[in-house]
Amino acid sequence: MDILTRLRNFHLFAALPAEDLQRVADITSRRSYARGSFLCRQGESGSTLFIMDSGGAVLYQPGPTMGTERSTEYLRPGQAVGEDALLLGDAYCFSLQASADLQALCIEKQDFDLLRQRYPHLHNRLQLSRVVKERQNVPSFPWQGPDEPTLLLRKRHWFAFARNLPIPILSLMGLTAIVLLLRRLGLVFSLPEASILIGVVPTGMVLWLFLDWQNDFYLITAKRILHEERAVLFYETWDEAPMSKVQDTTVIRGFWGGVLGFGTLRVQTAGLRGAMVLDYLPNPEDVQELICKQSGALGSHIYKGERDDIRQELIRQTGLAAAESDAVAEIPVPLPQETFQNNQRPPGRFSLSSLLQLTFREGNQVTWRKHWIFLVRKASLPLLAVLSTAMFIVFSLVHPSAPYSPSLLLVSVLLWTVSVGWLWWQTEDWRNDLYILTDRLIIDLERKPLFFSEERRQATLDMIQNVSLRKQGVLSAIFNYGDVLIQTAGALGQFTFVGVSDPRQVQREIFRRVEAYQDSKRTQQKQQEKAGISQWFKVYHEISNDSQKPPDSL
Question: What is the DSSP-derived secondary structure letter of residue 370?
Fold first, then answer.
């Protein structure tokens, strides 16, 4: 079949006029693949759309365990794969192997992007899926790294806003009845007064509900699933689940969800955290498919890296490729180093600057303490006692009309001393509660002054399953503090960093350290596997050399 006909039968190009279809055909190449060869492998960077022209191919998806694949589909002439690679540059989350000698029509992303730049109208004529359209217009956020692009951003369905409208409607009806009663009693005389009394409260409620609905969103990135729920000046929660922890997903639709096109997506993650619930989600099946695909892509990326390492080690050991014979062992990638200011003091030393400082960095260790507003709460009463007793003592000594009594003065001095001690105790109690993050550990340290008691909880970073945050109350919104909740596996349970400043930054720092720690462990595991392969080949060569030696003569 000719190229134009094949392209016309593919849904992506079905609506293109003849001249645009010919432009696509000009950048399309026909390639031949022998039986058993791979057109692409899972985990490889995606750049090519494959349209089967003759022969057939087997599509392999990631298996239930890391490093395994299972055949899921047989592609015949006319079928295609790699649309996401062509349009979005996604890595292949599958492998495609020729089951017989075949020919495929191939379009490269680089050529297709240049064609769309040259003819901008062509993009609007492509038959893009809903998810692809959304993904091409998703925003990026300052906290995202270059290796974590945004895949999808969705708000709750409008039904989540509409379901709360009966509240302002009922308040409107109630206020109308009250105003009518007041008019009968002659307390409300003008129509503007009546309109204001009736309309202000329901209108404010509707506006508040609308803003509350607009502030909530779901975000899917290459590495995590995020849900932000915020009520301005009242509370804010930021829930995250690492994509690597996703185990399975379930879509639930009720009656209205089936009619209006929304549902609930339950994302089950590893550990004690349980399920992450994305409710009132428009077209939840699209999100479910994207999460499953991206979760598989992460596994494919790790699998590809392991396969490439094994290949390089075999080449080095067997000498099949001279250029690779001198390959050296991979060096572990250290945690990213940061430049810190020299004037920052460790939390153990007391100074005015360290008293007001809430975050300390020493090398690769980060230490947080509770926001200073917690110090204000603890110290306000003893500070008031110190100032009150001090003022009374000064007044008694300098004011001529003040009654003077040595015993009363002594009692006042004793009260002032006790108040100072109380103030010191509360300040030290606030300073001694520390939250520490290192390259390997997370530590929650609670310590009373004067060595009265100390509780230290710690866990390695690989035990962390999920990190979320919550901000409650007007003060937390104004002064930007909140709780960071760290869910760990096993009996350790949950760590809670209470009242830390800028909790979102704390959350991101923990996630960054966890990812770096996991990468370091994977690198170490790869090196151990390489060492094992080297040892196997060393023993093999020893056995081979021994077998080639002539037998000892008697």
Answer: B
- Whether domain 3-128 has CATH 2.60.120.10: the reply is yes
DSSP, collapsed to helix, strand or coil, labels residue 337 as coil
In this predicted structure, the answer to whether residue 435 has a pLDDT above a threshold of 90 is yes
Q: How would residue 281 be classed by pLDDT, with cut points 50, 70 and 90?
A: very high
Helix %, strand %, coil % of the chain (to 5): 45, 25, 25
Angle, helix 191-214 to helix 166-184, in steps of 10 degrees: 170
3-state secondary structure of 315: helix
Q: What is the pTM of this model?
A: 0.66
300-314 pLDDT, tens digit each: 666 666 666 666 766
Q: Do the Cβ atoms of 447 and 453 come closer than 8 Å?
A: yes
Q: Tell me the domain boundaries of the chain.
A: 3-128, 160-214, 352-512
Can you spell out the DSSP letters for 288-351?
Answer: HHHHHHHHHHHHHHHHHHHHHHHHHHHHHHH-SSGGGTT--PPPPPPPPP----TTPPPTTS--
Task: Look at phi and psi of residue 315 and say left if phi exceeds 0, alpha if psi is from -120 to 50, else beta.
Answer: alpha
379 SS3 class? helix
